[in-house]
Design a protein that fits this description.
CATH topology of the largest domain: Aspartate Aminotransferase, domain 2
Strand content: 15-25%
Number of strands: 15
Strand order of the largest sheet: 4-10-9-8-7-5-6
Bound molecules: 3-[O-phosphonopyridoxyl]--amino-benzoic acid
Shape: globular
CATH superfamily of the largest domain: Type I PLP-dependent aspartate aminotransferase-like (Major domain)
Largest sheet: 7 strands, mixed
Length: 459
């Protein structure tokens, strides 16, 4: 489609040459994308000079906020010293080793071994292959079915999208791959009906056992889930959910795989989201917050049992990437982890700025448009609904969320919308005064959305 003439020169080039991920590129070619030019702290600026408070930390990832010169320095120094070497063919680099050791120290329980990737998607694909390999080399090749969840999100490569339960993704490219199946999600606000959250959580966990028994436990390799579903709309499961899931996995010796891509590295007020729910996974995937998004890096962490099988019975692993454990990414990750630790950022999310944000966010539940406010640490959502007590949704699901998102942008605030839920995931370094600004702009945007919908009167 030809771009319209009111696009800036960079926007015209974008329209001519750039295919946007998860976007309607033809539509963007008409309107022109917002071009971001710089960032500082919790703010980004666009090419028009608008200053925006980024309450979504990029795409869940800019944990330390923008403009941290320490991360830049760590990358530059490592680039100068040794910009690249791989970890194949009996080699590796120092930052890669130090990062693997640091992650072993931080991750819960005996998750002591990391296979590095470049993204969360690659981590998910790696998991599909490695859990099947784990069982196959122990004489159980039939134990190859992996259970995920409807509306789970683990990335967009072929294995990751198959593990995820996003129906729209299956429509493109012939997914899911074989021997992956899904169970319903613990989304109480949307699907809990008259059940209490507690009852609903137990019921949704019980679906895992039902599925395992239906397939035959000897066929089930692993269950994969996010601690809190991010992309789906920040669905925080009822407290009863995770303990039951863990118990069921242990009972049938099904590997418990937790996707920590969004929840990891402090987002929930713990180093890892599984710790918030008191769960001990066998495998976790990590990405985004590992480097605050300054440079791409991900990984899969295995517990001692799995690592031992992979190391001693697995033979030569036919799995990895040119940039697995890239030294520049590892150097940035190490510096990122150092800052998280030295500046007590995870503790602030748990005990200081996190509760301050949570109090203000939960207070938005009194707004006529808000059916539910929810938050853990600095990961939250507001469900926008037409009828508060009934928990019903707007027709044309997604339109009101999109409207609110664009009004928020006009007010200098970046919030994401998924369906009609407004999602919150700011940099963890956000200060109290910036939280005040975020909350004030959110309320103003809700008011203006309600006015546009005719729910509130202007003024
Ligand atoms: N797992 C989770 C839980 C994620 O949120 C990935 C894996 C994949 O990571 P990579 O690095 O391959 O993108 C993610 C990423 C959205 C959206 O619509 C979310 C993500 C990516 C793109 C869009 O909220 N999350």
């Amino acid at each position: 489609m030809m771009p319209t003439s009111n696009l800036s020169p960079p926007q015209q080039l974008d329209a001519a040459h750039h295919i946007h991920p998860f976007s309607d590129t033809a539509e963007i070619a008409q309107t022109g994308p917002r071009v971001l030019t710089r960032g500082e702290g919790v703010y980004v600026w666009d090419a028009q000079g608008n200053k925006l408070l980024d309450a979504f930390a990029g795409l869940w990832c800019v944990t330390l906020g923008y403009g941290r010169s320490e991360l830049v320095r760590a990358a530059a120094e490592q680039m100068q010293q040794l910009p690249y070497y791989n970890s194949f063919s009996q080699c590796t680099t120092e930052p890669t080793i130090r990062l693997a050791a640091k992650l072993a120290e931080l991750a819960p329980g005996d998750l002591n071994h990391t296979l590095f990737t470049n993204s969360g998607s690659e981590a998910a694909d790696t998991i599909v292959r490695m859990v099947r390999h784990f069982w196959a080399v122990q004489g159980q090749p039939q134990r190859n079915v992996i259970i995920g969840r409807h509306n789970g999100y683990h990335g967009s490569t072929i294995g990751a999208a198959s593990l995820g339960g996003m129906k729209g993704m299956y429509a493109q490219g012939g997914l899911p791959i074989p021997n992956i199946t899904h169970i319903a999600q613990p989304y109480w606000f949307g699907e809990g009906g008259k059940k209490t959250p507690e009852e609903f959580g137990r019921q949704r966990a019980a679906l895992l056992e039902k599925k395992i028994l239906k397939l035959g436990p000897e066929r089930v390799a692993a269950f994969v889930a996010e601690p809190i579903q991010g992309a789906a709309g920040v669905f925080i499961p009822p407290d009863s959910y995770w303990p039951d899931v863990q118990q069921i996995c242990r009972l049938y010796d099904v590997l418990l795989v937790v996707d920590e891509v969004v929840c990891g590295f402090g987002r929930t007020g713990h180093w890892f989201g599984s710790q918030h729910f008191g769960v001990q996974p066998d495998i976790i995937s990590i990405a985004t917050g590992l480097t605050s998004g300054y440079i791409p890096m991900g990984g899969v962490m295995f517990n001692e049992r799995i690592a031992s099988v992979l190391k001693h019975q697995g033979g030569e692993l036919a799995q990895g990437y040119s940039y697995s454990g890239h030294p520049v990414c590892a150097a940035v990750a190490l510096e990122n982890l150092r800052i998280l630790h030295d500046e007590n950022i995870v503790d602030a999310v748990a005990n200081d700025t996190g509760p301050y944000l949570a109090e203000g966010w939960m207070a938005l539940a009194d707004h006529p448009l808000v059916g539910e406010a929810r938050i853990v640490g600095m990961l939250g959502a507001l469900e926008l609904v037409p009828n508060k007590p009934k928990r019903t949704f707007f027709d044309d699901h997604g339109r009101v969320g999109e409207l609110c998102r664009s009004i928020a942008l006009r007010n200098g605030l970046i919030l994401r919308s998924t369906a009609d839920a407004m999602l919150l995931s700011p940099p963890l370094t956000i200060s109290r005064s910036e939280i005040d600004e975020l909350l004030e702009k959110t309320r103003r945007s809700l008011d203006e959305t309600a006015v546009e919908l005719g729910i509130l009167r202007r003024g």
